[in-house]
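A quick aside before the break. I want you to see a complete sequence-to-structure record at least once, exactly as it would be stored in a machine-readable document. Don't worry about memorizing anything.
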Amino acid sequence: IHPVLLQGQTKEKFQHGFYSDAVFTATKILMSRLKAMLHEADPQAKELDGSPLIENLMSEKAPKIMFSEGNTLLDKDLQRGYGALFKGWILAVRNQKAHGVTDTLTEEDAFQELVLISMLMKALDKSSVVIVQSQQADSKNFISLKTSSPVIMSWGFFIFHIEIVSDRRFYYDY
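That is the input. The structure line, written in tokens, reads:
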């Protein structure tokens, strides 16, 4: 289980038998993290929640969260797969808790939902946030990457010439 979920209210609620509340608390933690990642990628982004937030962050054409670093079919499958998992989590778990569906989860069901949330949190730990901003320095477009390794990206049918400027910045021409 992700360390954040083992601390504080999620763990306490689960241990005391408040299984639905434990899952709801974990969903709020994950949603807060996703919202923070959106604002890291785009500080001017409007406040989004639920499915619109996931669609914005994990758009196939311009993702703000990257789960892979390459452009191979396997990398694209990984990106689409995590996008589908997050979309499924929003619809099947988060929306049930956030929109007042009152249910009494069994210990096993709650644990399984917490494992899914944990898996998504760990995927975010390994992901990169893509910060797209237009700057007019030398008429180059800049993308900042929050990652420790270089990333090559493409959107749609665009071909980019990429030059690494520093550890986490590069410019592209298209």
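Two observations worth writing down. DSSP finds five helices and five strands in the chain. The radius of gyration is 18 Å. We'll return to this after the break.
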